[in-house]
Design brief:
The structure holds 2 protein chains of 2 kinds.
Chain A (H helix, E strand, L loop, with lengths): L1 H35 L6 H23 L5 H31 L1
Helix pairs in contact in A: 1-2, 1-3, 2-3
Chain B lengths: L4 H20 L15 H14 L11 H4 L15 H13 L4 H11 L1 H14 L1 H12 L2 H9 L2 H8 L1 H16 L6 H16 L1 H22 L6 H18 L1 H13 L36 H5 L11 H15 L2 H16 L18 H15 L8 H33 L9 H13 L5 E5 L9 H10 L2 E3 L10 E5 L1 H6 L2 H14 L7 E3 L2 E5 L4
Parallel strand pairs in B: 1-2, 1-3
Antiparallel strand pairs in B: 3-5, 4-5
Classes of the chains: A mainly alpha, B mainly alpha.
Amino acid sequence: MVVVSVLFFTLLFGMVGFRFSAGLLILYFIPFYLLLSSAALGNSEKIVFGLFLSFVFIPSIAYWAGFVIPFRLAIGLAFILVLALALFLRFRKQAVSKEMQA
Amino acid sequence: MKVNRNIVEIIVLLAVYLLGLYMWTLPLHNNPYPFGDVDASSHFAIGDLMAGQDKSVLYVPFYLQSRYGGQNDFKEGALWYAPQYWTNTGIVQLLGGDRTLPVFLLVAIFSSAILLTSYFLARQLFGFLPAILSTFLLIFSARDFMIYLWGQWPQSLSFAYTPLVLYAFYQYTAHYLDKKEKPIYLYLMALFLAAQLFFHPQGLIASAAALIVYTIVLAVRHKRLPFSLKQASLAGLLFLGVCILLAPFNFGEFVVELFFSDKGGGAPSEGSKFMRLFWWYQGIKNDPGIPSFYFTYNLTHGSLNGGLLSWWTLPLLLIGLFVLFSRRNEKDWVYLSWLAAFYFLTRLVVFGIGNRDIRMFAFEAHVFYPIIAIGLLAIPSFFPVGEKHKAYLKYGLVVLFLLLAVFVNGKSAWNTLESQQQSVGRVNPSQYEAAVWIKDNIPMESTIYDFGTLGFQNYAAKVKWLNVLSQHNFVLEDRYLNQTEYVLVDYTDALNLGDTSYRDAIQQWESQRFDPSQAIYNKNNIRVYRVVST
């Protein structure tokens, strides 16, 4: 699905389309999908909710950080923060379930 | 061979969604230059400035002051909308490595986001077929693609969150009433409502109205509140916290406007307006600023060309409503509540509340189309035939639905969207090049007097686009001519239109004032002169 979407934009809009669609997937979709992967939700819910939450939170973090650091770095920071939170919750959930099993 | 149903559904959804995106991006095929009327350019401006200067923007830039300065009653000079939509456009400018195309690709994705959320809600409540059919029809919704072409982009994205809000609340109440609490849905709903406020408060109001109706219905049916007060309070706090933390000045502006300002207040209800309660469109026709097709069923939900076939969805809508009203289960009530909210919000002026209720018509197709699909798929159940024959009838109707959707709605939508590719209403390459030259070569706070660009007499959309693309203040009225430092004379639209009287008028005006050899920019039938201001 992801590959087809990137291919679609690349075929229609060339390199700009490729950079745009791949960037959108990496910056928006992946961190929030991972973030919600720890939640008690169905897979389709995680995909849709994650995508639509990312449209709010990625720009929010980038916007406010953009007053303190350059905007480009702020975008990177937003990505790293959400990804770090997602990984933290994922590891925490795994640790808790291991404890429960033990 | 056993076919995995989920995979088939995903493939079909992907095909339908990409078809939608292909159509919605038609104006961008072979033309990456901006389009959009009214406020479109302003939705481009802030993200463009952020990406260009590599820092966030808090205040309305000087070149937008005349249009948007002073619109934030909470913090003087602050941005008039929450920054999230515009920050997204700034981000994709950098991701895509181009100033205009990635922004318009994102706008196309955001404006058609309702395809995904509407599918999601309908799929979860009614199954695959009603969901995919209604989503397919939504691709061609004139309500939606016209708003996209006009440029009310944040509003479109805001309305796209309503199905998510309704789904989250439906799931929460269903689990709560079943004594299997899942408060996560309520908290997610609070986040989606905050998103709606950030993108455009109208979406939030639409969702809130639907939630109120649905809550009342559930409370009456179950004779108790369908939610925990504690969890609802927590969700309320989450909503407030996110709004205050992420968009404090715009949340403040929303509160001020809602409770302490008479900006949104409409005139007291007039007698004739009460008739709006009994009619769907009549009485709302011919509103200034919105073409009359917008208030005509067959033109907006059929074909802009009209004709008998353009009414084809109306019987299905009526059947769908009949089905929902006769079944009235809790899933049906989600859509009925949304429809009731639509009805009241498009008639607020009758009650003397606000004066922009016609803008709520923007979400009509989102409510109607799933009901139309439900109506279609209910038809076989009216016939006393065996299951096998019902199945044949159902798939026959689906084929007929697809044919009508493509050849009536689809054809009309395609023609409209494709016609925008080379529309003279768009910024042309020569104008774009001139705007970039002005941005890079003329002192920042200078004003530019525009003569010749299409609509220059009344500060129409193209001049606004030159305004934001050049990041300079554009003025038009003659009284400013003696106060400006630069004059732009633009022949490109007159030449593209092949209108000799238009061209001659510009030539006469220019020859009376300037010598073309003195122009500081002279390229592609656009000249810029430096003049001595008084």
